[in-house]
Each structure stands twice: as structure tokens, then as C-alpha cells.
Amino acid sequence: xxxxxxxxxxxxxxxxxxxxxxxxxxxxxxxxxxxxxxxxxxxxxxxxxxxxxxxxxxxxxxxxxxxxxxxxxxxxxxxxxxxxxxxxxxxxxxxxxxxxxxxxxxxxxxxxxxxxxxxxxxxxxxxxxxxxxxxxxxxxxxxxxxxxxxxxxxxxxxxxxxxxx
Length: 165
Prior knowledge:
The protein is of the alpha+beta class. The protein has helices spanning 3-32, 40-55, 59-63, 84-94; strands at residues 66-73, 100-112, 115-127, 134-148, 151-161. The chain has a five-stranded mixed β-sheet.
């Protein structure tokens, strides 16, 4: 073996060892410390927290549950809300009716450790602020959640009244 051949052999061996070590580290990092997916029950509880925030009557408390770039397609408004000011404005008016939500059907899809979708149907009991008369509004919903900065936030919320029939 010439000196040049020995150097080449040493470089090939060193490169192979570095590559093997890198692959091993990558595999153990990928397999070992994956964040745990939330349970469907944990995702369902996010609605309960949102519903409780409605009971405070404080639109800021409700809006805090939405990401800064969230989109809200609300139940009783035709306007699409795409920032905190618009979302808070919606709840400022919606909360005048003292809404109380109750889910009637829930389908939860946990996408990964940081995202999930909760979709289904619910109804709200709304109280007319002038007359005190209560009204039931049946709707279908979709909440898309993302875990950001360790906190689960609503990034997309669609709620629409059930179609007739």
C-alpha cells in the first residue's frame, strides 16, 4: 500500500465513521424524545375552557383563547374575523346574549403533538338582553387547535347555524 492509498483509506474510514455516528444520533433523536400526542379527552376539554370563558362575559378572556393569526367564521355574523380586534368585537356583541354552549356530537382528530381538530354539532342558549327571552340556536362547528409556546390556541374556528330541514 502506498502512502497515498493509506491516506485515502483513512479518509474513507473516517468519513464512514462520522456518517454512521450522525445517522445513529439522528435516529435516536427522532425516535426517543418525540412530544406526546394529546388525548382526545384533552382536546375536548379545550372547548369546555372556551365555553367557561364565555360565561365570564369578558370578550378579552374569550379572545385570549385564539392565536394572533386566528380566523373566526362566527355563528351569528356574516363577517369573517381575522385578527384579535375583529374577534373581540364579535364576542363583545355575542356575549350580550349570555351564550351557554352544549355539544351534541363531537369528532376529534389529533393530528400530532401540536395540532388537533374538534368538529361536530352544538347548540347555544341565548338570552335576549332586553326581554330575557331564551332562544336555542343549533349549529355545527370546527375548532382547529395548535399548541404554540406551550399553550393550546384556536387557529381556526368555524360555527354556522344548522341549515333548515
